[in-house]
Amino acid sequence: MSNPIPLVVHLIYRLDFGGLESLLIECINRMPADKYRHAVVCLTDYTDFSKKITRPGVALHSLGKPPGLAPGTHIRLWRLLRRLKPTILHTYNLSAIEYAPIAMLAKVPVRVHGEHGRDARDPHGANRKHNLLRRLVLPFYDCYYAVSIDLHDWLKTAIGVPDEKNLLLANGIDTEKFCPPEGGLRQLAPALPADCFVIGTVGRIQDVKDHAGLVDAFIRLLALIPEQKSRLRLAIVGEGPLLPALRQKVELAGIADQVWLPGARIDIANIMRTFSVFVLSSIAEGTPITILEAMSTGLPVVSTRVGGVPEVVIDAKTGLLVPASDAERLALALAVYVKQPELAAQHGAAGRERIQKHYGMASMLSAYTGMYDAMRGEKKYRLGGC
Known about the structure:
The chain is of the alpha/beta class. Helix content is 39%, strand content 16%. The strands form two sheets. It has a seven-stranded parallel β-sheet. The longest helix is centred in the last third of the chain and has 23 residues, at 361-383.
């Protein structure tokens, strides 16, 4: 007997450490079980990060897609969708967008696509080939959605997504899990002693995050305030293809004893409470989950002014914003908080309040569930059943 609860298949490039992936898993774990079932299909593969899925009955599938066009991947996905018989296909970002026609051929009734951010190859969404693809597959989707006003406006103006198909769904996080440390004093960690001022970031080590530029800014910071040099620490938490090169850069700069590179971690909420300030050096973003988590933890944020970041971080109130790829400006902004801990505390508290008001988990779950419900409702009306 078939399960009457609708199945959502989430199609993602790879399930690994990252903000989008964390959001996906939170939605799966927390969405009411009587509303939707879930399966995750990875175009390439998945890692131990997938163990964060705690909801029973969530199937994981990997299609083993090689680099390039890989038409065989379309065939494998079609067969899988025919077997799973989902009600909804939910694709994420450019790497998965081309598979809506296959889903239609597999008779998946509802198809939605989410734009959660861009990569370093096209930080401003201006690539003509990529945008042509987005336009070509638009008729096969019931809606596109974006996680920031910046992306939402871009979908309308650059891609031509009509208003009735263009949704804005704000990211959200668990403000109880991501909370300030008791007493307002940062927690200690073996690599980050009590007398340290810790500049921390969390994210996949890839080019779009510009961690190399962050290391350059840290080196500049050490020179800007030499009297504070001994207590300054940089923590870059995450795994990714550029981690070996980043380790080498740190070694060659002679600052390995001041830079903590632990790789991927699953205890991010605890790690956030060991930071003094959160930093994001990206050259492109949607609405970064890690910034929401940091602000909810009560941390002031120093970030590049990219994507949806200015919608969340209010400059000079909850953090400081600087141009992308500008190590000097990034170092100067970090120095402000090192020199003025009372300002750091003030901005951190204001950030926590902002996240609690506007970016809670319940609101995000309601928005995603509402989108699924609305799209199914429209299909039932148009097609007489779904």
